[in-house]
Amino acid sequence: MPPLLLASTLLLLLAILSSSSPAAGQRDGPATGTSRFREAPLFYNAPSCPAPLPPGPDSACSPDALVHVAMTLDVTYLRGSMAAVLSVLQHTACPQSIFFHFVATSAAGYLSATVAGSFPSLAFQIHPFADEPTVAGLISTSVRAALDRPLNYARSYLPRLIPQCVRRVVYLDSDLVLVDDIAGLASTPIPDGVALAAPEYCNANFTSYFTPTFWANPALSVAFEARRACYFNTGVMVMELGRWRDGGYTERIEEWMDLQKRMRIYELGSLPPFLLVFAGRIAAVEHRWNQHGLGGDNYWGLCRDLHPGPVSLLHWSGKGKPWARLDGGRPCPVDAIWAPYDLLLRTAIPIDDS
């Protein structure tokens, strides 16, 4: 990041912290309504875009939906999700032509009302995560409790949840913001026979994602034979839904999760099953579309700098989330980039339980 830009974002961060940091008890709250979000600005399509989609779920199959975005939605990470949606709309040429698919396990009414309240013109649908009981029975404990929630595995089930009329979807985690037009990511070329595209990182220590038990068993480690298996982060993916269904990839992921319950072959949540099925079999996306790891490691969440190169998407994967660090008065420098997208109202609204 250029020094001038870094200085300006740090000044913005200091102003936010000094004037409007929420007090204890005013941070992300439960579905009782202790947190409220302001209405976002309305962003309009450029003249070259199709007609705007009507708000609500009715236009999921409209040919005017240029980009379909899928995200999970829950109370815990709602603040991050709202910031992510705002960043998508703010930086695309056709904000009124984007359809959002949200997957939720509970509080669907509250979540839908909150999204509609901040984005009155948004075309979106909330999909109940019907496979939650099945997933809960397949999950084994990992290095961080937040990774063990069934909703963290919902990305594997998107082809079952999203209408079959939708050919391609961009999946986004809730702890990121875009600073570029999502249409560029959505239009990633994906060759015939390939169901998934994501930035690959072939210099990462791939073996560390699996246990010695896995690598010592020839019947298991053969899964990567004749594959140039590289690490990729599942928080940003472009998915070809029809090819995914035809390939039975959800079922393949479930098979590895079931094996993990019987003999521990990995430690890190929902990522290793994706690597087992897809590593070396995906289309490459430019690294600028997932500047991940800004939340630090999974234990301490320490500050990290941006990777070298251009940036189109910043991703706070890891334990440290920008809203928590801002609220705690101990932000990292990159958290200043997230702060302008925060829609949280700084005064909690009391709810009458009666």
UniProtKB/TrEMBL annotation:
One of its GO terms (molecular function) is glycosyltransferase activity. One of its GO terms (cellular component) is Golgi apparatus. Pathway: Glycan metabolism; pectin biosynthesis. Coiled coil: none annotated. InterPro entries: Glyco_trans_8 (IPR002495), Glycosyltrans_8_dom-fam (IPR050748), Nucleotide-diphossugar_trans (IPR029044). Pfam families: Glyco_transf_8 (PF01501). Keywords: Glycosyltransferase, Signal, Transferase. Its EC number is 2.4.1.-. Residues 1-25 form the signal peptide. It comes from the Eukaryota. Belongs to the glycosyltransferase 8 family. This is Hexosyltransferase. It comes from Musa acuminata subsp. malaccensis (Wild banana).
